[in-house]
Amino acid sequence: MKLFTLITTLMAFQMSQAENSITIYSGNHQGHLNQDQLQNVHNIAGFAVVKQVKETTFKKGQFNLAFDDVAEHIDPTTVSFSLPNNPNAASVLDQNFQFDLVSSDKLLQKYLDQTITVNHNLGEQNINTKGTLLSTAGGLTLATSNNQITTIQNWNQIQFPELPGGLLTKPTLVWLLDSNTNNKETIELTYQTKGMTWWSDYIINLKDTESECSMDMTSWVTIVNKSGASFPETQLKLIAGDVNRAKSNVRTNNMVRETFAKTADNQFSEQSLFEYHLYKLPRKIDLPNNATKQIQMLQKTHAIKCDKTLRFNGSQQSSINYHRPITDQNYLSRNEAKVEAFLSFKNSTKNKLGIPLPAGRVRVNSVDHADGSLEFIGEDNIDHTANNKTITLKLGNSFDVTGARKQSHYELNKNSITEQFEITIDNQKDAVQQVEVYEPLYRWSNWVITHHTAKYEKSNASMIKFNLEVAAKSSKTIVYTVQYQWPDIQK
User: Fold this and answer.
1) 297-318, pLDDT tens digit by residue?
2) Alpha-carbon Rg of the chain, whole angstroms?
3) Rounded distance, CA 340 to CA 399, Å?
4) Parallel, antiparallel or unpaired: strands 291-305 and 213-225
5) Within a domain: residue 361?
6) Which of 352, 393, 404, 454 is disulfide-compatible with 478, CB 3.0–4.6 A?
7) Does residue 63 fall inside a structural domain?
8) Strands, E, within 317-431: which ranges?
9) What's the pLDDT band for 265 if we cut at 50, 70, 90?
10) Distance separating alpha carbons of residues 334 and 420, to the nearest angstrom
11) Whole-angstrom Cα distance, residue 366 to residue 271?
């Protein structure tokens, strides 16, 4: 069965497009949606605030104004209708959102007991049969003009005289207005819609040598539009930040506090918006429905200073909750974990950056000096990062630098534990490697280091760090002793 053809379309007020703008809020900090996820609008963690400015001729008195150029996934409770140039031209008596969209089944049901024309095959001939539609069960049953009853199981096309009232080709907003003018008026319509999101993708080309670490970085914005509407010639704004949304409605704050200098004419400018950041593209773009679009956010920035760091945490503990002293001698007494590779850089003006960076995925490439090609070496996600903050990316695990950790002494007393560890870092690279060794002190909150063979620093209340320099093709072992104490709680 092939799709039918409509002969006529819904009559509505024609509005000439003057201006569109759209502000997209993203809840997708990690970036990337695959094709399967894109099929379901509920997988798209974001929304948009749409502003559309139209011009149409009003009628004096009460009349219905229909607007069918809205997103399918509009939240009708957020619609705002205004007349910016002539606020007193009309008042809104009521507002309706009609979404009973036309389909073949609905059309056929509407045309029961009415005349239609069906194009179908009869043997090898292609013919048109005109008659009154009696039933749609098991095919089409028609009463033709010669008083015959004809059933048609398969058809090519159905011609309907007109679109019945109450059926629409697009989701439509309809206002009942009380107007005091017959003039053309400008309408400003704003609403919120689901099915839109955006995220940032950053690409870093690392230039790592024995003497320094530098990198080039560029950034792209990916926009997804599954709202059910296309937005041609649209002024685009993107909001970065965690905006709280009530379940039944959304309110946004449009108070702009501070504006930063604009970049090139085809690049995003950035400004503060309440507790968030707004990125505005100076040129207008087209946002087709059911499509993704990529726009460059940051021009390629060269020679950003960075630091490459190797870290070893043999216990694999990062956060600690002290409920009671851990007295089990074998608890994390021995472990061989990976040495992890990190890349960090400061988001500062001095380091050729210095603008708030929205959340997204960062891919890192490194140059193969043998042929000059770029090779992928790792990726990580970043959260929204303010100016002057340091960004740290985990790229993977080191192949040639390894670590081992073992308990070399343990003594449990009534109100204390004394424990000693040996940590060995093995470096099979041809160059000296700097390795940060992290040791969480997880047995109890009251601790003191009583012996250590290398200098350490206290990272936080439950973590110490050793900065080791390991010569090429060699290994280095450090030893430390920690004593935990707790009060006698027995009565």
Assistant:
1) 888 889 999 999 999 999 988 7
2) 34
3) 9
4) antiparallel
5) yes
6) 454
7) no
8) 334-335, 339-346, 360-368, 373-382, 390-397, 401-412, 416-427
9) low
10) 11
11) 33
Amino acid at 170: K
What is the greatest pairwise CA distance in the chain? 108
Contact 207, 214 (CB under 8 A): yes
Q: For residue 319, name the pLDDT band (cuts at 50, 70, 90).
A: confident
- The answer as to whether 121 is a domain residue is yes
- Residue 26 burial class via C-beta count within 10 angstroms: exposed 0-12, middle 13-18, buried 19 and up: buried
Lookup: tokens for 92: 């809104």
- List the domain range (segments joined by +) for residue 359: 305-485
| Structure-token match 């100016």, residue found | 387
- Residue 167 is predicted with a pLDDT of 62
pLDDT digits (tens, 9 = 90+) for 127-147: 999 999 999 988 999 999 888
Contact 79, 190 (CB under 8 A): yes
Last residue of a domain, one of 123, 144, 160: 160
Reference 196, options 319, 73, 111, 14; nearest CA is: 73
The pTM is what?
0.70
State the CB neighbour count (10 A cutoff) for residue 82. Answer: 12
Q: What is the C-alpha to C-alpha distance for residues 383 and 341, in angstroms, rounded to an integer?
A: 19
**Residue 229 tokens, joined:** 């509407």
CATH of the domain at 138: 2.30.30
> By CB neighbour count within 10 A (0-12 exposed, 13-18 middle, 19+ buried), where does 128 fall?
exposed
Among residues 124, 144, 160, the one where a domain terminates is 160
Report how many domains make up the chain.
2
Sign, Cα dihedral of 312, 318, 320, 326? negative
148 within a domain of the structure (yes/no): yes
Residues 397-413 pLDDT 10s: 999 999 999 999 999 99
pLDDT at 10: 31
